[in-house]
Design a protein that fits this description.
By secondary structure, the chain is an alpha+beta fold. The protein has helices at 76-89, 94-118, 144-165; strands at 3-16, 25-37, 45-58, 62-75. It starts with a strand and ends with a helix.
Length: 166
């Protein structure tokens, strides 16, 4: 039984030190530590503190670095095994690695969006762009994804009516 208890940020750094017409952005997140926390007094479960570091480097113009921890409730024996494996070999099982990296990447990218605006760096992710076709004259901001979903729902309704009539 594995459960995420908390996601916590312990440090944030955002710097801009240059300007470039074309910006190259390199992002990554890594596990930097795993240890047992003493925050739960329970014979059956332990809390793993998994430390991470998120980096968003704007080559030659700036960077954003976020560090923190993900606290995970784990069965005591399994938690000790994970902590010892990290201590001895710096290895982590695939499922836990994916859980922590995805959680840290998602949360830190959202934080980096806000930080990039504050220090006047480009957004760390590419936002979807709305493209208007020549025949479109309405001032709407619906996306093709929404339109396709509506078309799909209408098609399903028609098929349902046809099957009821047969």
């Amino acid at each position: 039984m594995r459960s995420v208890l908390n996601f916590e940020i312990s440090s944030i750094e955002a710097k801009k030190y240059g300007f470039a017409e074309k910006v190259e952005i390199k992002q990554g997140v890594s596990i930097v530590a795993i240890d047992l926390s003493n925050s739960v007094n329970n014979e059956q479960f332990s809390v793993l503190r998994v430390g991470f570091s998120y980096s968003c480097e704007y080559v030659n113009i700036g960077n954003i670095t976020i560090r923190g921890n993900v606290l995970i409730l784990e069965e005591k024996a399994k938690a000790e095994e994970i902590a010892n494996r990290w201590k001895d070999k710096k290895e982590i099982e695939k499922e836990l690695l994916e859980l922590v990296l995805n959680l840290a990447y998602r949360n830190c990218t959202l934080e980096a969006i806000e930080l990039s605006r504050k220090v006047n760096l480009p957004l760390p992710i590419q936002l979807p762009r709305i493209q208007v076709e020549a025949k479109d004259t309405k001032a709407e901001t619906t996306t093709k994804i929404e339109e396709k979903q509506e078309e799909k729902e209408q098609k399903e309704k028609k098929e349902t009516k046809k099957s009821k009539n047969n």
